[in-house]
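Researcher: Final request for today, and then I'll write up notes for the group meeting. The sequence and the SMILES for flavin mononucleotide follow.
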Amino acid sequence: MKQLLLLFATMLFSSSSKVMAEVPANAGKTLVVYYSYTGNCREIVTTLTSQIEADVLEIQPAEKGLRYEANGYALGTELLNAINDNPNDADSYPAIDPVTTSLSQYQNVIIVTPLWWSQMAAIMQTYLFQSASQMAGKHVGLIVSSHSSSISGVVRDAKRLLPDVTWMGEALWINASNHSRRASLIENWLKTQDFAIEQTTMDKMYITIDGQTQNVTLENNTAAKALVEKLQQAPVTVTLNSSGGFEIWGALGFSLPTSDQQITAQPGDVILYNGSNICLFYGSNPWSYTRLGKIDGLSESELRSFLKAGESNISVTLSLQSDATGINTLSSSRIKDEELYSLSGQRIAKPSHGIYIKNNKKVKL
Ligand SMILES: Cc1cc2nc3c(=O)[nH]c(=O)nc-3n(C[C@H](O)[C@H](O)[C@H](O)COP(=O)(O)O)c2cc1C
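Model: Predicted protein-flavin mononucleotide complex:
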């Protein structure tokens, strides 16, 4: 009876329009892995990669020229039966060509596979069986192409073969009757998928005084990391006053975790004092401090001028961007509607008060 299902009509494909999908601008790298016997999954991949930036890996069976559909789909059935009988045995899976693409550089993987007898095509199952450990922890999406059978069995296979991944969302089913509309199906589906965001470690912040901005190289400590988290929400402006002939300092307005040590602060040092005060040094002073970072490349006299040594009520802005109000790290066409991004381009799931980007515009919460 199933054979009757498989009197596949020749499909007429319309060419897809090029629409950039709304994937977060700072999503990690994406790999699209596919297998295609009769070309439908290949067309799906062509459409998909016209909408997102991704590398592509095609899985090929080691034995070429096989006809899986011949003799009432005898070979296709045989390959799947072998897997079903012994799914944990590597020998149950049909051999594939060696894969040289390393998964380590990808945070997101989208699998595009045909359905065979309501299961995942055997060739793709081999690849997933072999790469399960390298896939662990990645965000994985699934697109299944069938003639008409529904895809729950393929989803089940994917979950069995990749037990340690984070599924991006529901799988997308493309079949003979909607294949020609795949461009819009894929575009809408991408909006529902949760792509992993690239985590970059911030080791720089910027200090702006009176329109001049200088780089600060941050320490690798919990105080500096907590400051970065705060600045990811919005730049912070503080009012500092000269003191002791060696620094300008004042209240941050919030506390950071301390790891105080007896040190001699040097010109250029950015120091946390008593957990909630920031000190910018143009001279030196021995005290118990937590160092947050160092202003890069300024001489003592340049520091005195930049920090307005000797003056009071100096307005100082700390930020993660050289232009404290700019939005230059976000590519506006690729931001999901309704989602909030920090000024440094990271998606914020639980926003507190601050300035964010939503629908390409700055919003204040
Ligand atoms: C061995 C084999 C078994 C198949 N079994 C089914 C099936 O049970 N139900 C169905 O709707 N399509 C079935 N198909 C059709 C494919 O799922 C469908 O044509 C798909 O789009 C093929 O993708 P491809 O062109 O990338 O290989 C089968 C195809 C083959 C080769």
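Model: The CA atoms of residues 62 and 98 lie 8 Å apart. Helices lie at 2-5, 40-48, 70-85, 122-135, 152-161, 182-192, 222-233, 300-306.
Researcher: Thanks, that's everything.
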